[in-house]
Amino acid sequence: MSVSIRTPARWVVISALTALAAACAAGPQTPPQTSPSPSDPNGQPSQVDPLAPYAPSGHAAMDAWRASFAARASANGRDAYAIRAVLEDISPLDLYLSETVTTQSAIEEQAEFAKPIWEYLRTAVSESRRVNGAELLAGSPDLWIGLENRYGVDREALVAIWGMETNFGSYIGTFDAANTLANMAVEGRRRTFAENELLALMKILERGDAVRTDFVSGWAGAMGQTQFMPTTYLTHAEDFDGDGRKDIWRNTGDALASAAHYMSMSGYEFGEPWGLEVTLPEDFDYSLADGRERRVESWQAQGVTIVDTARGAGISDGKYGELWIPAGYRGPKFLLFKNFNVFKTYNRADSYALAVGLLSDAVAGRPGLSTPWPSDLQPLSVAQVKQLQSALNDMGFDAGPVDGIAGRGTKGALRRFQAANGFIADGYPTTEMLAYVLSAASN
Ligand SMILES: [Ca+2]
Q1: Structure pTM?
Q2: Does some domain include residue 173?
């Protein structure tokens, strides 16, 4: 899609007016203010009225929403200057406000859920990304040491997040966060969320951490080299170089420090693996891959073996980990630790966190996976997953709602079917397994 950032021309006018007002206020002949006046971020009196009519956006519902939201933001205590700056230049985007339904459903589609995991990983953890990440790690050792010392987050994890979010700062999006979030609010399904993010943008301006023209974002409002939503920026952005701005757009140190601060606050464990590849014995009880964390020593007692013996030796027996089998018994298997969940605070998809983990290992020069992905397997379509769910439900295996998403409930039900019918009970839906289930259900 080719939506460019709108030049905030009116914002320039407002800025000039505000500067003029400030200059006048500083002069000796300034008349006394007749009523309490809102202030700009520097505490200067402002002539900006947040509730004065805005120029029409060309979209009636957007204009009505803006008038209402400006009043609520003002009642919420937001500065007149900041309200006006955020709401002045909004305009309808087809992405959110088009009449066609297909565009709307495209918004909701998350790439992580649409492709088999190995296809997703092929682009997310590409060889060029590994090479670029490794070069960036080697290129500025002082930066990485400084970040590790201050935040306790491993450099390879930081570079992997940076690579995943914006290809190391090379693609930070072409939207304006204020406009895209305003569109989201008008569209309506995520109005409360979007309005809260817009209030955060206003607070950022009030604090002076960034300026209005900084707010470059992706289509959903995530900003800068590490794709922070405005509320995350408010709570976690950092001014690493101490120049008074939290510039996650242009300043790599600020961006990476902000990501490191966020990961640190999410419980990142320095020097610990996010996960380790394991192998399982042939008679392994796959129902143990149920999302429950167990001690490493318990896993070892079940025959779970860490492939990288050197790194495995550094893991304490009492550490808790979850067994994860993302692509069935033929594919790679993992013990996942705390840092995997820290990656998921960035993006809740398991496949995203796995990509971050594998990329972090790759840029650190660690060996890749010993077991290949079963890429010959054809993933089930949504319609096929529904058939599977419905057949499992008919036979009493309780797959939950027939929604076409092969989640935890579906996999658990399939596992119970497999165990009852003499298959390896990995719960992984293949076309072959679907055929068995449909055949059993029709008998
Ligand atoms: Ca800075």
Answers
A1: 0.83
A2: no
